[in-house]
Amino acid sequence: MSPAKLVVSSWRQQESVNSPHVADLIGKRLSWVEEISRGHYWDDAALKRLVSDDLLTASAKFKAPVTFTPTHKIWVIGNVPPVLKITDTAMLRRLMMIDMGHSFLGESRVRDYARLLWEEESEEILTWMVAGAVAWYARGLGDWNKTRLGKNLKNYSAYSNNVPTFCDKALSLGKPMSEGVLFPHALAAYKRWCRDQGDRPQQMKDFYAHLRKHYAPYVSDTDKRGNMLKGVTMDFPGMSNAERPDKHMESKREE
Question: pTM of the predicted model, to two decimals?
């Protein structure tokens, strides 16, 4: 078992390449991380480094650094998945989301389930595993993006992006074209909303890209004050009038 900070980064310090936890992976086939807590984020740099065929260098405590070829697979188990800070192809292709859609509660709960599986179903489980391995060696995973696993990952990527949720809450469409919201004002409100939610905001370029893609008919590049959404008004969640960035702009113009 590996500690959570091997792959998630709610901690201020990211896991060092020389960490003994990385050295613990030498020669391992499987390592798992259990019970990720709410509010954690994938350490994208560490994950890209660890889920790779490239050589790794790490050192155990009081030992010299060792360079080794990765042999491990990392399984992360938890009820609340870590949030993706980056949803690019390089990140998503390293993840596979397996949902456990069944719960065994109350009368349906089976005591000592692991022992019963081992004693009564071990041969069938081994047969299933071998058949799966043979199929994988023969044809790989195939186009798994079209399967339930691909759909899970797509939904997971959307879950990690809080920009649509903010926009749905804050933006009101179909207003007079004299109304408008400057991109920087929307960004400031979004960052404040994230802070109040205890969430981490997406990067500015990703926030602006979302506005341009999903609100294209309202985007105007011709206003002398900068890029803005025309025919749109915004509620500023969690902000008083004195804190609103658009009010600051109006005060400056009046002066």
Answer: 0.59
